[in-house]
Amino acid sequence: MLLLIAQSMLIDRRDRVRHRWLGRAMLALVPLFCASGFRVVQTMVRRTDVFRATMGDRLTHVT
Hints:
By secondary structure, the chain is mainly α. The chain is about 85% helix and about 0% strand. The protein has a domain at about 1-45. Helix 1 runs antiparallel to helix 2 (about 15-45). The relative contact order is 0.08.
């Protein structure tokens, strides 16, 4: 989110060189962010992580 805000501010100040640099940096960072999110979901689905084994029952609300 900070990259988007910074990019918006840079183009508003007519600093196109830095605006483009941040845009290219986001092209590299977005796939990494998505891949890490996918990895978190995989870990949650497997239910083999240490956190779930130790705290899972305590945090689950059973009605």
